[in-house]
Amino acid sequence: MNPSTQAALYGPWRPARPARRERPAVVALAGLLWAVTALSVAWTGGLACVALLWTAAAGEPAVGLVAPLLLIPAGAAGITALARAPRVRDLAASTRMLLLGAVACPVPTALAVWLWAVTG
Predict the structure, then answer these.
(1) Between the chain's N and C termini, which has fewer beta carbons within 10 Å?
(2) How far apart are CA 39 and CA 61, in angstroms?
(3) Which helix (H) or strand (E) is 100 found in, with range?
């Protein structure tokens, strides 16, 4: 390709940024936060599905139990929207995962602990 055509179509050439170095402590902390979040969501979602099944087996309407189950995909959509924000996308991958894990972790974990204390 002609260099002037390249510049006209795509703008001036800019070298890519060097890859950022991952820090092991940040990676481990992000993994721990996401593991706690995944376990909390699994516990809460499983308990809600069991309650939904029991309600359906009893023949009662389960409208009140469907709304909390819809919070799981709503939370995932919020985390995805945050992950696609320009400032967050510019972060290193480990830092980005740590930030998203810190945002995602508190609500499902608190709900799972509360449900465990109430049911156990």
Answers:
(1) C
(2) 28
(3) helix 93-104
